[in-house]
Amino acid sequence: MHAILTKDRFNDAKDYLFRSGRSLEQQLFRYHFEDGDAEPVLHELATHQMPDGGFRNMGEGNNDVSSPIGTTCAFQHLAKLRVQAEHPVVQRGINYLISVYDSSCDAWPQKADDSRYLEKELDLHWGNPGAEIVGYLWKYQELVPDAFLEHVTALAIKRFYKLPLPVPGFADLCYVRLAQWIPKISIQKRIYKKVTEGVHQNLELNHKRWHTCYFIKPYWYALTPDSPLHNTLEDEIHSCLDFDIEMQETDGSAYLSFEVNGDALRTWKSIWTLESLIVLNNYCRIEQ
């Protein structure tokens, strides 16, 4: 029998977000749980968007300047909000992603001025965030030059086919996000198949270690029960949701499985608390 987040504990999490969380997660909570409008979320996202069109202070990436990986975090929200290509926030973001592509090594860095990543880790980790970026370029393809989209798509798929099993953790998540938007079904199927074949090797299957070390949360691969990887990971997903409920802090916030402090603590507590609530709700694990 799976655990259920009670109404009281749900309200504790909500109270935490509105007492100590960031404005972005507060507006996202209203959107997801209180039939809120998308515009306040877009307003908050715009406060994270820099003049160059990229996003800062999104948890991942740089806090003070734009970064490609931080911009993908923003586009995760824009995609879920079904924001259209005509919106200025989307247009500036896509223009940024195109402009920061490093043609000298055919890659996007993760963070600003991330030369180490570009020089030494491309073979295994190009997909993080490159594959996810290509996915958003497909979602908003009317904003992307055809030749550029064709080039980066071919490169993403070529690199994917050469990857060993398991596809390195986090890169595999980014390829799953690419598969969500790329229109060619045969490529979608090949991505899901290869990721599925190795995904358990990227997970911490000893659940006792979840209390003591950072681990990839299984539900990141399937945020809803209709996700393509859900059936493969169903047991692990529900165990992780049980863990989230069990480990909820007394103040209502999500338990973090990594050490962080200062402004970063507030940021990640806010992000993980909201994310846990959304996924618990998607899996009908919140008391009605």
Descriptive account of the structure:
This protein folds into two domains: 1-28 and 209-288, no CATH class; 37-202, no CATH class. With 288 residues, the chain is mostly helical. The longest helix has 20 residues, at 263-282. The protein has helices at residues 7-20, 23-33, 38-48, 68-80, 88-99, 115-120, 122-125, 127-139, 146-162, 171-181, 185-198, 230-246, 263-282. The model has no long low-confidence stretch (mean pLDDT 96). It has 13 helices and no strands. The radius of gyration is 19 Å and the shape is globular.
Quantity of strands, as a count: 0
Q: Kindly give the count of domains.
A: 2
Overall outline: globular
State the low-pLDDT regions, or none. Answer: none
Describe the sheet with the most strands.
none
Q: Count the helices. How many?
A: 13
Strand content: under 5%
Mean pLDDT: 96
Question: What's a concise summary of this model?
Answer:
It contains 13 helices and no strands.
